[in-house]
Amino acid sequence: METKTTARGRRVSVDGWLQPPWSPIPDPLIVGIPERIVHDGSVVLALDEDAVRAAGRRLVVDEKVAAIAVSYLWSFVNDTHEKRTAEILRQQYPDIPVFVGSELHPVLREYDRTTVACLNAICVGSVDGVAALERTLRAEGLRAPFLVLRANGGSMTVDRARREPLAIADHGAAGTLTRPPLGPLRSLAPHRPMLLLIGRGHGCG
Fold first, then answer.
1. What is the pairing mode between strands 155-157 and 68-70?
2. 3-class DSSP state of 163
3. Most exposed among 89, 98, 104, 143, judged by the fewest C-beta atoms under 10 Å?
4. How far is Cα of residue 89 from the mean position of the Cα atoms in its chain?
5. How does DSSP assign 103-161, residue by residue?
6. Looking at residue 102, what DSSP letter applies?
7. From CA 4, how far away is CA 24, in angstroms rounded?
8. pLDDT: is 116 or 190 the higher one?
9. Do 71 and 81 form a contact (C-beta atoms < 8 A)?
10. Using CA atoms, how far apart are residues 103 and 15, in angstroms rounded to an integer?
11. Which residues of 122-148 are buried (b: 16+ CB within 10 A; e: fewer)?
């Protein structure tokens, strides 16, 4: 819980008062779990699996969350506790997406890593419309790969986008084609029907 509050020591001015920066997660939705892995990756306190299950019940049953983010100190060195926590939660609530900081952003600085996991959890519903479009096109006979543009200009499947929805946020013009070169595309597959969707907007999903 302290990770969100300390925010790497950053403070912002609000009406002349210095305060911690805005947090995407309210305090009641943050649950601490007894465990500790230190800087060299060694375990000094085993993961309390009963506490993980209790946290899952509180968040899903009581708070009605739609997704869960998991982030522990030094998980980028040893991610066993985060992976086990995610495994327990997914077994307990298979319909609730679980986002793991060490998988999404395995770098030093727990505030950054935790924020990435939380923002992915917040964006969890952003792919629903794209997934519905893929289902519709598949039902109409689409057999070609259906890919979603990443913010870095790459692409990924809809299933992958569900696992890291923040990756498709604010892609902007990363993959935009002003005048699609359809001639060269047709030359690659002259006898196959093609569907090209060109996005010019910004935003998550």
1. unpaired
2. helix
3. 143
4. 16
5. HH--SS-HHHHHHHHHHHHHGGGGGHHHHHHHHHHHHTT--S--EEE-TTS-EEEHHHH
6. H
7. 9
8. 116
9. no
10. 38
11. bbbebbeebeeebeeeeeeeeeeebeb
Residue type, 169: A
CB contact set of 140 (below 8 Å; sequence gap of 6+): none
pLDDT at 5: 53
What tokens does 143 get? 């057999």
Distance (Å, rounded) from C-alpha 116 to C-alpha 184? 38
C-beta of residue 117 within 8 angstroms of C-beta of residue 111: no
Q: To which residue do tokens 């939660």 refer?
A: 89
Residue 39 sits at φ, ψ, to 5 deg, of: -60, -25
pTM, to two decimals: 0.73
Percent of the chain with pLDDT over 70: 78
Position 55 pLDDT exceeds 90: yes
**CA-based radius of gyration for the chain:** 21
Q: From residue 57, how far is each of 21, 46, 116 by CA, in Å?
A: 29, 21, 23
N residues, the chain: 205
CB hemisphere CA count around 168 (13 angstroms): 25
C-alpha to C-alpha distance for 139 and 166, rounded to whole angstroms: 27
